[in-house]
Design goal:
Number of strands: 0
Largest sheet: none
Shape: rod-shaped
Low-confidence stretches: none
Strand content: under 5%
Length: about 100
Amino acid sequence: MSRRRDDPRWTGADSLNDERKSIKNSERELDNIVGMGDAVMEALRGQRQKMERSSGSLESIAASLGISQSIVRNIQRTEWIDAKIVYGGMIITTLLLILLWWFKG
């Protein structure tokens, strides 16, 4: 059991040891967060590839069914807007996390 700071037996070494443990815990948590971020990015890449494949087949099906080009353009524009919203949200979230880290540190 570690000693408390108000304990007269508390030493600078105890403080350094606590700080080292805290840094190790922070590093472990950061590794977990980076790992989750990598997993999310990989999932998004997979979804993007599926969407690209389905987009091509959707366009060919739409052309064979005689759907007007304006509807296809609306779908493509919506995909573009959705991508911008996702990337904007990722940037805003990243900036928010950086600001929180900056002001908490």
